[in-house]
Predict the 3D structure of the following.
Amino acid sequence: MERRRLGKSDLELTVVGLGCWIMGRAGWVNVKDEESIAAIHTALELGINWLDTAEGYGGGHSERVIAQALEGHKREEVIIATKVSPENLSKQKLPQALASSLKNLNTDYVDLYQIHWPSPDYRYHSSHPDVPLEETMETLLAEQKKGKIRYIGISNFDAAQMAQALETGRIESLQPPYSLYWRHLEAEDLPFCRQHNIGVICYSPMAQGLLTGKFSLENRPPPEDNRSGARLFQSPTYEAALEGIPVIREIGKKHGKTSGQTALRWLLQQPGVTAAIVGARNPQHVKENVGAANWELSVEDIEALGAVGDKVMATLPDNDSTTWAR
């Protein structure tokens, strides 16, 4: 599978990575550990070389599932990315959180350790204490010197916050929500990353499943599903998203690809994007996801798909950059 260098690091990521949020099980329905482990094994067999998780995914359960799946594999052959939660960003708590993740993952180091959310993030984590970003970065750099972290990344930061982080130390990656149906990143954050050679690994690249074409007006996520309250699943955005699927599907047919593979390929061809984090419940989902690699959309295809995305974006507020989870 095609690979791209992450920022200035020596990490060469496959353009499709395996997202392991769902493997934490909390907030998801009908998730089984044995299927999650099988999905990880299939991903590695098909050439995916990196896994993304977080201590907050099921209270470390996702990390522990990864450890189970990687038993018998050579550690250096798999790139592991995890994240520290906003309540653990202080110089007292972060080393403990990292130690817990290392124990969960059954490893001595993390290839990419990311700040999950900036502090404070009043939209989601107003109850957590405000920790100066300089303090968090200095603590991360200290752990990096100890060899417990290879590279430092951030998630859900905007351009101003990234600039602040760079004042203290190097960050190699941004992990933002980005898809054909969610393009706020293009205004400021993506150009900033290109300017500073910061890798971009996108989460929710399938718009939480909307771009697969499996949803309809009658078929929405159940109330207990994380996606049920997401902005993309609310009117009028949801209806606009559904209207775009036939166009995406038709473009995909020209290449022998599904709508999901086509939308994911559009993302991978955006300037500045390093790779996409795609979740999977089972091996079949993984096989579908890797179909986005090793082919190209034409300029005309990209323009037509972009027009579809524009119609969805027109239903969203300009400043709605991270309220996908609300």
